[in-house]
Design a protein that fits this description.
It is a single chain. The protein is built from eleven helices and 22 strands. The chain has about 575 residues and is an alpha+beta fold. A hairpin with a 4-residue loop joins strand 9 and strand 10. Pfam families: Clr2 (PF10383).
Length: about 575
Amino acid sequence: MAYSQNASELKEFEVMQIFRSDGVDSGPGYWAEPLKKTTKTSGGKDVVSTRKVGLTRLDDSDPRFNEWRLKLGLLLKQELSPAPQEGLPWFVPFPKGYWLYEKSKHFLVSGYPIKGKLYKTPQEFGVHLLWLLSSSEDRRDCCCIFCNTPDTEANTSSSNTSNASNTNANTNNAATKAADASKTGPLSAATTTGPSQGQTTAAGGQEASTKISTLKNRKPARLSATGAVSPAVYQPPARMPTVSALFRTGELVWYSHEQSWRIGLITISESTWHQITPIGHASVPMPKINKAPTDIRPFLAFSVPQVSQEALKGLSFDDVPWGDRVRPLQAAGNHNAVESLMLDASKLGALKINRSYSFFNRFGANNGTTSYKGIFLGAERIHVDDVLRISQTPPGQPPQNVQQPEAMDMVHFLLKGIYTMEASAGTLFFHGDVVRLVQSPVPEGSSILTPEGLPPVLLEEATYRNNSSTAAAWKWHWVAVEKNTWRREPDIKGRFYSMPRLGPILLAPQMKAGPRDKVAPALNGRLDAVLYGPNVGETKTRAETVRDIIPEHAVFKFDEQEVQFENDV
């Protein structure tokens, strides 16, 4: 019982890609120059001596490189997975700017911002990776041997004692912030296989498992949803989104199931995994599952196929007496027929959800106008300060039968407010700025948005494209096309996702090729993806929207600071 989209081939490993990086190893030639050392003679004169570093850069496909990746995977899975012994082994590619070298039969990891500091073991490097996976921008929260050290090494013994105390305080602070990091779920990604990986699994596992206590004694900082790509050209300010930039609790998504894709609702979101409740009908409870972001797709990435049973065609979810249909099948023990019926129920349930909306975080009401800070608009959860994909036809003009512009020519909507008005009952109003990403030279008269004033998703997008470009630095800019303008529900196509977050999931092959600065994912519009079925309109809460689509005991665990319903304000 598969949908039209094919899942990945059978996996040998779960790839844990780390997108945030502080690595500075620029590639071949980084260690080609002699390392210079200045010393003082007894007469006070400087004497400069040189020596060859002698580091041999390993090839990316070297079996020994893959062995390190597997060892790092074992260490991180032991730290981050609630069930480290279950599932496939993790495979951890080095973050951008880090590389493995060999010197005198010893292996060293290069790339730390201080050039001479090299990690000697997977355990040493793994501790630093935990910090890169976290949301912390403070190196004092990192417990690795280079970040968590006293400020000076040449002070008196009393000064050394003071520094050691400060270091311990920083370590304890990081541990306190991350006491629950090891409770997060499993992380997986697209398949990565190589001719030597199967041979190195056992060796990697044996060595790493003997030293796992090294990592266990170092508490990692709390993980973020997905690390941002570390910019090689332009360094953005340390600004992190307040809500997940990719998948959010309450959203309708596709998830991988064997060799197909199915539809479910995210009921719990953690930093590296999401709990999904499959949708169908409440009379047939289905077990919740945990999925990594790489095994999830936005609902608008695919179109919902037609129902398979002729008797259901043309009906809405609420038109079908699901309980009456499923009970005879359950009594007869016809499990295949029950599954087939529930697949059709999930399709009709998804259409119902996508044609509805409900508000949260009511902000104020005045003279018949009510404002909100958030809305479940169809499949997605939208907050003020999000960026939205919008119709390319200006409001008030009829749609034109012309080809859609290229992805990089599209305009987006920086949301500043969500409103309803008593005088226009049933109509949604969205207030904000229309923005576009343009390439230098910027058109004359354009209002350029400074990097410091950009919301995180726009900053990530511009930074990624400039780092991916083969041209000069910072050649892409966000400009305001219209300021303080208005759009209505039919104009909103869905949330805008930045390439460093959605690209590795939807466009992995294209992201590996270059240049990548003009690659963009293609997503359906909210109302374009569902061409049939009645319009549901407003519901009181998200739970009311999905009533009967999932079991009653399935509840959404929202962050109370992010989502509050109208009755709670």
